[in-house]
Design brief:
This protein is 37% helix and 19% strand. With 208 residues, the chain is α/β, with parallel strands linked by helices.
């Protein structure tokens, strides 16, 4: 790991402690198509658009979007634009934001309501990620020239075809929502965030 001083110090410290050796060879094989997609775009000096998709766009897809954008900045991979969406829109679950805040992200609610809008910052001078629940094909997201990364098995099965996607990549994660309302809730959200961060930082560490 190295320092580029673009991230908040707490996130920089979190990133520096990630252990890629904990990623199994089987899991690395799952991540390889995403590495290949990013590397090809990077080699051709083209914009890299990644749309992380799950059912409700409330937990795993947002966590993936935020960590992927942060990892791209950490490894100084240019022209990376990360998005997220669901097969339906609900709301970004509060514990999702809390788990990201636990890792050092600065999060501010910029609009209230049933589907709040959050500004999620990972560096003092970096543009905030705008977090709110939306369908994967909403106008806020790209319509062409992007990779669709399916982060849950339900969305993967429910969306065999993603219109406009150049590549469809399946990288699923267990849903922390099963622990909502239990004493393990915070720990399980932090655990899932750590897994996603570790894997997506590993992905960007492979881009040359």
């Amino acid at each position: 790991m190295f320092k580029n001083n673009r991230l908040y110090p707490e996130i920089e410290k979190f990133a520096g402690a990630l252990n890629y050796d904990k990623i199994s060879n089987e899991r690395k094989s799952v991540l390889q198509p995403l590495i290949d997609y990013i590397e090809n775009k990077h080699f051709l000096q083209k914009e890299i658009r990644l749309n992380f998709i799950c059912t409700h766009n409330s937990r795993r897809s947002h966590i993936s979007q935020v960590w992927a954008q942060t990892a791209a900045t950490y490894y100084d991979i240019q022209n990376v634009y990360c998005y997220s969406g669901g097969t339906e829109a609900t709301a970004l679950y509060p514990m999702t934001a809390e788990s990201l805040a636990n890792s050092g992200f600065q999060i501010r609610t910029i609009a209230q309501g049933e589907n709040p809008i959050y500004a999620i910052k990972y560096g003092e001078n970096e543009h905030p990620i705008i977090g709110f629940s939306k369908k994967y094909d909403a106008s806020f997201n790209p319509s062409t020239e992007f990779a669709a990364i399916m982060t849950c098995s339900h969305a993967d099965g429910g969306c065999p075809f993603i219109a406009g996607a150049e590549k469809r990549i399946v990288i699923t994660y267990d849903d922390p929502k099963f622990f909502d309302g239990t004493p393990l809730q915070a720990a399980k959200y932090n655990e899932r965030s750590l897994q996603i961060a570790t894997e997506l930082f590993y992905v960007f560490s492979k881009i040359k």
